[in-house]
Structure formats: structure tokens, C-alpha cells
Amino acid sequence: MRKLEIIRTSGLAAGLAVVAAAVVVAVVAAAVVAAAPVAAAAAPDRVAVIAGDFNSVAYVTGLGLEAPWSAAPVPGEPVHHDAVLRWRDGLAWVVNRGGADNIQVLDPAAGFDTVRQFSLGLGRNLQDIAFRADGTAYVSCYDTAELLHIDPQAGQILQVISTAAFADADGLPETGWLLARGGRLFVTCQRLNRDNWYAPVGDSYLLALDMDANTWLDCDAGRPGVQGLRLAAANPYAPVQVSGDRLLVGCTGYYGLRDGGVDVVDPDALVSLGLEITETALGGDLVDLEATEASRHVIVADSAWVTRVRRYAPGVAPVTVLVGQAYDHADIAWDGGFQLYVADRRLAQPGVRVFDVVSGAQLTTAPIATGLPPALVIPPPAGAAAPVGLIPSALALDLPWPNPANPLTRFAFTAPPSRAVELRLLDLRGRLVREVRLVTGPDGRGAWEFDGRDAAGRAVPSGIYRCVVQTGEGFAARSFTVIR
């Protein structure tokens, strides 16, 4: 879910705003547009993209889940120029920040039209929203030492939970990103000096809330009072990621110094396990982090403020996927399957680029135009929709049939006549399940039937898989599901 632009005018990235021009903040006091509950919409079939100028104009538009990934309509539904978005029940919940301090609910099935909007009180600088199983939600605040427990249907605050105990000398803890996991809510706590270019003040934390009791958990019994989970580096900047039974927290530290990295957290023991990789190894200030099943993707900014998209696996050196010319790359997001989205803000051709998670290859020949430069790309939750997309290449791979497979399915493809073709099946973690080599016929057609077993003859478990066919000229791929 979600993400934030690299040059923000307020909130979590205020430290980077010092390199931007002065910004006029539009204050919007939004009233409740619709008091009646909104029925849950169908599963979203489009990626939500927030595009804007980081100054006064922004909107949400939809992006297709599969090739050719066209974006329409452009422009889309207006939102505040400093906003983030989360999915819930098929609806897009926009947190309008930077002085707007309201929640805007959009329906993707209706072109992302606004179906509800409510204020939570000006001056708080709302940052993020996370939902509980009972339908209530939490909203973090940046300019007050508060966490709000709200009823999102009524647009009302149920409880104000103080975060003052975690603040530094200025009385503000700078809380931002939220992640609900099990019965706990995790909250990033930066602790920054606003009078010194938003530099970190001592330690930064990941706070843990018991959502049943709405009380903070003590993450360090050896120190007096209720303590947050002390991170291995300062300034947790990127949204918290889940990787197996661990959490990953991207920390930027001081801007311009390579003192941050990706912190690995045990959410059950409430302890940091240390940095998985440092900013020195990443090659710059960490701007964004996205963890897939098999690897990590980051955006980093070097000393000249040039951004790069880099990819690494634990213990494996990073490789560069995409290089910008300035602050070009604003956000990176994974669809939970095999596609990675990059928000590219270069003025000459702004838009969204799509990459294959497994191979790292770029699937788009040019950025998908979004009108204004994209700031955030937010795919619907994995499993909310079932996109199957053809990857542009020299090959053509038909839709697997039947799909879902139970467990048999057939893969048919087209390539140059009498051409050797390698066909590989991969699981969601990118691990090889099966591999065969085939030769197309005189008509360029080829096919292979999968019997539901891996290379060792074992039945593969139910789940989502990837079929990749490749020649020297390129590759094509399709996702499919095995159900037993």
C-alpha cells in the first residue's frame, strides 16, 4: 500500500522539502459529504495513481492492471497536493495532509469519484490510515502528539491516544506510517528537529499499540516507562514492509549522510535485528522501499540528488534497475504478483513504468502517461483482482487454459518457426518449479501441458505461479493459479 512523494511539502519527508522551492499550502476544511455508510465496492480492477505538482494541484487516476496499462481518465478526481492512499473494501481512502486534514473516500468503479469526505480537525497534519478488523481505523498525526482511533463510516473520532511519551524536546514525535498486523498496530516515529533541517534527534522508533486495549506496548522493559522499539538507524522514512515473519523499515538517517539503511524487525519479540543493508551499500539516501517475495527494491538519492531504482536480495549486492536525471523517481510499488510499478516524474515524459519482478526487465517501452507527474502508485491488495497480462516481447504467450488449474493446464505460444524456446514455471518467490525446452513447429506454434508437478515429481501446492517463455529475442509471461 502504499506511498509518498520524494519531495513533500509537509509530513514524513519534510527534511527533503528544503531542496524544493517554497510551497503555498492550500488549506481545505472538508465537511462530511455523505453521512450514510457506503456499501463495499467490488474488487478494484485498476491501480490507483496520485499525480500532482507538489504545490497546488493533484488528482487520482486509474491505471490498467495489465498490458497496455493505459491510464484513464486523465485528469482524475481532485485530491490535496500532499496525499496518500490506502485500499479498504474495494474503496480508495485518501488521507489529505499538509493542512487539509481530511479523509476522502473514492470509488474506483465510478472513475474514482468521491463518495465521502470528512474532516478530523485542522492543525493535526494527518499522515496515514490503517484499518482494524472491526471496521474502525487509526490515523496518525505529524503536527500533534496524537494517534486517532476513528469510526470511518461516521467520520468521528472515537479516541485520542497520546504519543507525547515518545516525543523529543519539541514535544512532537513525528509519527507517520502505520501497519496493522494481527492485534498490533505499528507506527513509525521519526523524532526530528524542525529547527535544524528536520535532522534526527537521537534514536527513532517503531511504536507498537495493542489494538484491543488501545494501549502502547513496552518494547524495552529495561528502561523506565513505556518504550518504543528502538530502530538500528534514525528517521524511518519509507512505509513499513512485511517480509515473511519480519518487518522491514527503511531509515534515511541524516539527509546527505549515508547513515541509514533497511532495518529488520521482529514484530513478535518487538526488537530490531539490525540493518539488512546500509545506505553505503545502497549508494545514497533511502527514499523508498518495496519488499517482494524474492527481493527488495529501493529508490535512493545520491549526493547530487539523482534518484536510482536499485534491486537487491539479502546478502546479494544491489544492481541498478533505473537511473534518473534528478528527483525523477518518486515511488515504487509491487502488485503482489509479478509486476513492479515506478512513478517517474521526469518533466519530458512523466508517467508510470512497469517492471517484471522476477527478471527485472522493464515491460513498458515508455512511461504510461498520467498527465501530471505521478507521485504515488498504489496497486489494489494482492488477491483483490486477478489480472493476467501479456508482456510485450518478440513472443506471444496465450492465456493458460484452464485457469485456475486443478492441477492440469496448457500453455500455448507463438515464436519464429523452428525456434528453440525455454519454458520455465516460477512460484511467487521467483523460485524455479519446472523447466522444459521446446521447439516451435513450421507455423511458429508450440504448446506444453503442465501436470501440476515440480521437477522432482512432487505435486505443487495451491497458489499463484508464473509461466515464462523465452528465446534469444525476448520473453513473454503469464500468471496462473493452481487450486487443489
- The mean pLDDT is 86
List segments where confidence is low: pLDDT < 50 over at least 5 consecutive residues: 1-40, 385-393
Report the span from N to C terminus: 30 Å
Binned, the helix content reads under 10%
Question: What are the defining features of this structure?
Answer:
484 residues; mainly beta; Immunoglobulin-like; five-stranded antiparallel beta sheet; 38 strands; 45% strand; disordered N terminus
Summarize the structure.
By secondary structure, the chain is mainly β. The chain is built from one helix and 38 strands.
Question: Could you outline the blueprint of secondary structure elements for this entry?
Answer:
Elements: E1 46-52, E2 58-64, E3 71-78, E4 83-88, E5 91-96, E6 102-107, E7 113-119, E8 126-131, E9 137-141, E10 146-151, E11 156-162, E12 175-181, E13 184-189, E14 192-193, E15 199-200, E16 205-210, E17 215-216, E18 229-230, E19 241-243, E20 246-251, E21 261-266, E22 271-278, H1 279-282, E23 285-291, E24 296-301, E25 307-312, E26 319-323, E27 329-334, E28 339-344, E29 351-356, E30 368-369, E31 374-378, E32 396-397, E33 409-414, E34 420-427, E35 432-439, E36 445-450, E37 463-471, E38 474-482
Antiparallel strand pairs: 1-2, 1-31, 2-3, 4-5, 5-6, 6-7, 8-9, 9-10, 10-11, 12-13, 13-16, 14-15, 16-17, 16-18, 19-20, 20-21, 21-22, 23-24, 24-25, 25-26, 27-28, 28-29, 29-30, 32-33, 33-36, 34-35, 34-37, 37-38
